[in-house]
């Protein structure tokens, strides 16, 4: 019988690839998505479609009101999502699309879910190479959270559970991620990575689209997700 693993699933390229990796490693993925007040809430439909297509038996969507705090162009209507930045620009500083404490909150919820399920493994799609400079996407953060996880739960303290936090994309380029997902049979047409995505598709101009399109190009593949008409 496969061991359960909690997989954080946004519906984007990275998290979908991680879901495929977890399944390929023999785990039974239990997907966890978040409605956190993001403007690009269409990604949640993608998450549901991906989970269904990949045979996920349990997919939970939690409502976490991070938009109540604001402080990010992904959740605050008074802030504009940056567009038109080059790949080099994206690597400079922490952009306005950083959502304060988002991955900390998400992993904390995943930890609670894992303890209830008796799952010792949590998968997250953070990446320290082709990313937007977010502090909660670094190896140091993942290592620190894993230490915290094994101090913070009854199951761990009582010796019934040891939590491992897996970030299999951490040192991969976006092209590497696309190649690995393609090898594992991921249908990227179902995924949405765009920070401004709506019913028309993805904008093709935000940081996330820029990184995604470059990844497909460097992998020698065509991105099958729909983009806004030009």
From TrEMBL:
<dbReference type="InterPro" id="IPR018317">
    <property type="entry name" value="QueC"/>
</dbReference>
<dbReference type="GO" id="GO:0008616">
    <property type="term" value="P:tRNA queuosine(34) biosynthetic process"/>
</dbReference>
<keyword id="KW-0067">ATP-binding</keyword>
<dbReference type="GO" id="GO:0008270">
    <property type="term" value="F:zinc ion binding"/>
</dbReference>
<feature type="binding site">
    <location>
        <position position="194"/>
    </location>
    <ligand>
        <name>Zn(2+)</name>
    </ligand>
</feature>
<feature type="binding site">
    <location>
        <begin position="9"/>
        <end position="19"/>
    </location>
    <ligand>
        <name>ATP</name>
    </ligand>
</feature>
<feature type="binding site">
    <location>
        <position position="206"/>
    </location>
    <ligand>
        <name>Zn(2+)</name>
    </ligand>
</feature>
<comment type="similarity">
    <text>Belongs to the QueC family.</text>
</comment>
<comment type="pathway">
    <text>Purine metabolism; 7-cyano-7-deazaguanine biosynthesis.</text>
</comment>
<keyword id="KW-0862">Zinc</keyword>
<feature type="binding site">
    <location>
        <position position="203"/>
    </location>
    <ligand>
        <name>Zn(2+)</name>
    </ligand>
</feature>
<keyword id="KW-0479">Metal-binding</keyword>
<feature type="binding site">
    <location>
        <position position="209"/>
    </location>
    <ligand>
        <name>Zn(2+)</name>
    </ligand>
</feature>
<keyword id="KW-0671">Queuosine biosynthesis</keyword>
<dbReference type="InterPro" id="IPR014729">
    <property type="entry name" value="Rossmann-like_a/b/a_fold"/>
</dbReference>
<dbReference type="GO" id="GO:0016879">
    <property type="term" value="F:ligase activity, forming carbon-nitrogen bonds"/>
</dbReference>
<dbReference type="Pfam" id="PF06508">
    <property type="entry name" value="QueC"/>
</dbReference>
<keyword id="KW-0436">Ligase</keyword>
<keyword id="KW-0547">Nucleotide-binding</keyword>
<protein>
    <recommendedName>
        <fullName>7-cyano-7-deazaguanine synthase</fullName>
        <ecNumber>6.3.4.20</ecNumber>
    </recommendedName>
</protein>
<comment type="function">
    <text>Catalyzes the ATP-dependent conversion of 7-carboxy-7-deazaguanine (CDG) to 7-cyano-7-deazaguanine (preQ(0)).</text>
</comment>
<dbReference type="GO" id="GO:0005524">
    <property type="term" value="F:ATP binding"/>
</dbReference>
């Amino acid at each position: 019988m496969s061991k359960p693993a909690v997989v954080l699933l946004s519906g984007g390229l990275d998290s979908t690839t991680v879901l495929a990796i977890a399944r390929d490693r023999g785990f039974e993925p239990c997907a966890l998505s978040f409605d956190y007040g993001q403007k690009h809430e269409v990604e949640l439909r993608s998450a549901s479609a991906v989970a269904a297509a990949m045979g996920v038996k349990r997919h939970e969507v939690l409502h976490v009101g991070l938009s109540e705090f604001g402080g990010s162009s992904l959740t605050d209507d008074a802030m504009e999502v940056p567009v038109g930045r080059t790949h080099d620009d994206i690597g400079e500083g922490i952009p306005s699309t950083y959502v304060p404490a988002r991955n900390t909150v998400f992993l904390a919820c995943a930890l609670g879910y894992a303890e209830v399920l008796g799952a010792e493994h949590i998968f997250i799609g953070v990446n320290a190479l082709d990313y937007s400079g977010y502090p909660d996407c670094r190896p140091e953060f993942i290592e620190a959270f894993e230490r915290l996880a094994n101090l913070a739960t009854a199951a761990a303290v009582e010796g019934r559970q040891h939590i491992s936090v897996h970030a299999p994309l951490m040192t991969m380029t976006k092209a590497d991620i696309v190649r690995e997902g393609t090898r594992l049979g991921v249908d990227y047409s179902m995924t949405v990575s765009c920070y401004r995505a709506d019913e028309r598709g993805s904008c093709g101009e935000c940081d996330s689209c820029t990184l995604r399109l470059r990844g497909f190009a460097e992998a020698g593949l065509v991105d099958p997700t729909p983009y806004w008409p030009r």
